[in-house]
Amino acid sequence: MKILVTGASGKLGCYLMKAQGVEGCSRRSFDLTDPAWEGYLDKIGPQAVVHSAALSAIPDCLSRPEQADLVNHQASARLGRWCLQRGVRLVYVSTDMVFDGESAPYDETSLALPLSEYGRSKLRGEQAVLEQGHLVARVALMVGPALGSGQSYYDQLVVNLRAGRPVSLFQDEWRGMISYADAAEALLRLAAGSGTGVVHLAGPRLSRYEMGRLLAAQLGSPELVSAGQRSDHAAPEPRPRDLTMVSRRRQELLPGWQPRSMEEQIPAWLA
Ligand SMILES: NC(=O)c1ccc[n+]([C@@H]2O[C@H](COP(=O)([O-])OP(=O)(O)OC[C@H]3O[C@@H](n4cnc5c(N)ncnc54)[C@H](OP(=O)(O)O)[C@@H]3O)[C@@H](O)[C@H]2O)c1
After folding, report:
1. Which of 83, 97, 99, 209 could form a disulfide with 88 if both were Cys (CB 3.0 to 4.6 A apart)?
2. Residues spanned by the domain of 91
3. What pLDDT, on the 0 to 100 scale, is given for residue 87?
4. What spacing in Å lies between the alpha carbon of 164 and ligand 1's midpoint?
5. pLDDT of residue 29
6. Which CATH number do you get for residue 259?
């Protein structure tokens, strides 16, 4: 099956591109806000699309809400229409940030109430592609080394810990952290499979502090990580407190698939 990945140069995109036979495009190929991309995609002729491209940085979405809407919502709606007209399967990569963090755990039927411009633009994108009969995969906070040129949150943490610099990480904010590798595997399986609607892809509930302690322990310096509080940091937008996600649909759509624990993956990342 010919699968096309949008956002192939991104952190998730680089993991998606590791799979055999997957084709990718990024902004260097075409800008999704420029309708000329339709001709480009017609030439590739994919049978399924994993739509990972997004304006994904939360501060960027806050400072450029029109651009966030153009990329995350309007371009997704146009891509969804293109797919619908050609019978191409679309998996829209969404986020746990569509929830407000006050009623975890969230399953696929939970009410989405985003607190940020990013979350709102992704939710509008979700709604557009769901109306077209596509699949939305809401992914939790992804963790792991970046394969491309940029650095991930995980990479920055490891750089600091390896340099012996103390770090303070939120103890009172939780995410169902999942590795980029596990999320990419699940998304490609979803693209090759069937089923529409919403599905959640998340790992076990962890705070950034707990994640940092796991890393630091593996590096032999757990004392470098201290527990920070959300109230210590003023944020321009409210931060969801607990975005733990569970799934009612995982067994149906991804039989046998299970995200690995961080404890299982960290030693290989640090090796
Ligand atoms: N990171 C997370 O923890 C997380 C969690 C849940 C969901 N998600 C979702 O997962 C997806 C990937 O996230 P990520 O962290 O890998 O993002 P990322 O590293 O910021 O990558 C975003 C990708 O989108 C492309 N892109 C941005 N604007 C574009 C445009 N106008 N036209 C064409 N391509 C454009 C970028 O191309 P350039 O490189 O050329 O800019 C890049 O390839 C996003 O949909 C995000 O909402 C992420």
Report:
1. 83
2. 3-270
3. 98
4. 31
5. 87
6. 3.40.50.720
